[in-house]
Amino acid sequence: MIDLKECSTLQIMPEVLRKDVKVQAAGYALQQTAQMLMEKIARSSVYAAIDILPEEIVDLLAVELRAQYYDTALPVADKREAVKKALPWHCKAGTVSAVKELTNFIWKSSSATVQEWFDYGSAPYLFRIMLDTDMCMDEGKIEAFIAAMWKVKNTRSHLESITFRRRIDHKQYIGTGVKSTGRIVITDVWRGRYEMHRDMHMGIGRACTPQRIRIREG
Prior knowledge:
By secondary structure, the protein is an alpha+beta fold. It is built from seven helices and seven strands; from the N terminus they run αααααβαβαβββββ. It is 36% helix and 22% strand.
């Protein structure tokens, strides 16, 4: 089977014409033109072609689709993903699932938990977010997250707190030591009385490997 993208007019020409230099040149020109047109046709589907669109077009699509979380400084892979999720998040705006998906997307996590006020006994219409993430929690990123969250949460609900959970592993060593203690008296009738002392000490020690941990909360 001939692939349309790789098809050349020479393949359907009689053998005698394939040897003609002018026919070969015309066939090559037609093939290049056809490939260019097919690439443009593929990009015209837009939403289905986000992964192959140039970065500048992705930036324009983010504006057109009103992407909830978008920054031109983001890696192009994150830009494409944000544009892909824009329409689904618009459809689910105002739901807990939309807030959860946005949280996981921004903080590169899969553990986000959104608890509404009645789940943890808070004031009405408040909610809180808890998640595990290894990303840097700088103020700019937190502000961008809150701004994006306002676009997907329902109007009456308000964020009360964000809890970032981190797992920190470190080595711990435990050991014991023993030192004997005693007193021995030796009596020698010729040389007098001699004393020997022996002490025994017992203890337990614990040591941890030194580690510097810096956590900055927003």
